[in-house]
Amino acid sequence: MSNEDIKNLTLLKAGKQQYPSSPDQTRLETFENKYPERNYIIRFDCPEFTSLCPVTGQPDFAKITITYVPDRKCVESKSLKLYMFSYRNAGMFHEEITNKILEDIVKASSPRWLKVLGVMNPRGGIGIEVLAEFLAPGFKRPLSQSFR
What we know:
The chain has 4 helices and 6 strands. It is globular. By secondary structure, it is α+β, with helices and mostly antiparallel strands. The strands form 2 sheets. It has a 4-stranded antiparallel sheet with strand order 2-3-5-6, with helices on one face. The protein has a two-stranded antiparallel sheet with strand order 1-4. It has one domain: 2-Layer Sandwich (GTP Cyclohydrolase I, domain 2), CATH 3.30.1130.10.
């Protein structure tokens, strides 16, 4: 990690942490990919994701899995943790949450490929799974899509 990367990772160095109350109040931080010549897969597993139903205000629980092939930047995990935490008070439908996570990570890191899978716990007897994907122009899906 370069000195410039370290200077830019303000959330990782922060002492007492301020927790954002919505995704729009967060900042996904990145650092330089030291292996941009190589395709490799990074996966983040968020098994305790929570948000609010936009209609009832009741809590929703989910497992969110983020899988991507970085290009020039990698997503810093503490900033991602705070970003994901910010959804706790956000009233959104599952489809919007999954697509917003995808859009925000693409905007922050410009990956070659990104997949966000939201597996929402059943409410009213129905579970919901939402899969959103981004593919950079000219990049082919990785062969290891089933990466676990």
